[in-house]
Write a structure and sequence with these properties.
- This is LANO_0H21682g1_1.
- One of its GO terms (cellular component) is cytosolic large ribosomal subunit.
- Pfam families: Ribosomal_60s.
- GO terms for molecular function: structural constituent of ribosome.
- The protein has 110 residues and is mainly alpha-helical.
- It has a domain of 52 residues: Arc Repressor Mutant, subunit A.
- Helices cover 68% and strands 0% of the residues.
Length: 110
């Protein structure tokens, strides 16, 4: 990940096509030893793919089809799902009330 971050920093800084030496200098400038094999693997995976903006845009379209947990339920706005979530939230609140220290007859610092 640090190699990709260094690559992206160089591109954002105006270097449209960073070399392995450029990436290595960024990594080593923060006191981390750079591994040539990982730098070369990154550059070979990006080779022939176009600009970084095109790669990011392509990745965003691929990620848009991936469900994101609770966000998918909230964005659909389904009545059945919303009703079930509301009932679950009420049940959790009731359970919390039942498990409070007040019901046990003593508090944490008594």
């Amino acid at each position: 990940m640090k190699y990709l971050a260094a690559y992206l920093l160089l591109v954002q800084g105006g270097n449209a096509s960073p070399s392995a030496a450029d990436i290595k200098s960024v990594i080593e400038s923060v006191g981390v030893e750079a591994e040539e094999a990982k730098i070369n693997a990154l550059l070979s995976s990006l080779e022939g793919k176009g600009s970084i903006q095109e790669i990011v845009a392509e990745g965003q379209t691929k990620l848009s089809s991936v469900p994101a947990g609770g966000a998918a339920v909230a964005s659909t706005g389904g009545a059945a799902a919303g009703g079930a979530d509301a009932e679950a939230a009420e049940e959790e609140k009731e359970e919390e009330k039942e498990e409070s220290d007040d019901d046990m007859g003593f508090g944490l610092f008594d």
